[in-house]
Amino acid sequence: MKEEQLHRVTKRKPCPICGKPDWCGMSSNSAVCVCMRISDGARRKSQNGGYVHRLTDAPCSITHRRITCNFQENKSADFSAIADQYRHTVCPEKLRELADGLGLSADALLRLRIGWDAGSCAWSFPMTDAARRVIGIRLRALSGRKFALTGSREGLFVPDGLTYSGLLLICEGASDCAAILDLDFEAIGRPSCTGGVVLCVELVRNHYPLAVVIVSDVDTPGQRGAKSLASALLPYAESVRVIRPPDGIKDGRAWKIGGATRADIQAVIDAAFMGKFTIKGACHV
Length: 285
Prior knowledge:
disordered C terminus; 7-stranded mixed sheet; 8 helices; alpha/beta; 285 residues; elongated
């Protein structure tokens, strides 16, 4: 296998792990970084006192001061371990910049276990099944483009700290979920306007929240998907409501950015039609 020498990072190409412009090294194919500052998420320690971080799934071999590190592609990805590794590479300053740009709090994003994939230059959000096992990772590029890590399955965005003791709001996507969390509701995100139905049903059936509220986008696919999910959830929840932002506001995050408060959204919830599952017919003893 061809060996590649490490090259020093620069101000134009800083270390993708610590963000600093000096001391660290990168392989020429950007597959491996030896960071001299951050050990969290590293594969191993190098003999020069740094920490070897793998940035891509591509096989590679590098040398640094006569030390060779070999990585082979992992055919069965451990998405939970990958998500944890990405979480440990988050730069707090960059996270605050992202949160400000999205109109969200860093705390809400952290509850969703946001991470940073240096190889893709993208923010990461773990997707889980109903038992919170990580089954995939959604990536958000700096341009806003969304895609998934290879091998991922569609799952739910489930934040830390849910109690399921009252209202549970189901949103479309991670950022809408973060916006509703910022308004002090309990919320989860589904992967799309039509995705995650089976997982949502399983989660509600397992935790049985007092009531479920589906926050729909204002577009036709979003409203259609929300009504379909509501029908699937009715047999497993005390009540199910579907709400949407006012006209001119496209989704939950825009609703929050536009100045909506918890009281505003609670008023919309209270005014919404409450669907209940009933069994018709007489019972004779």
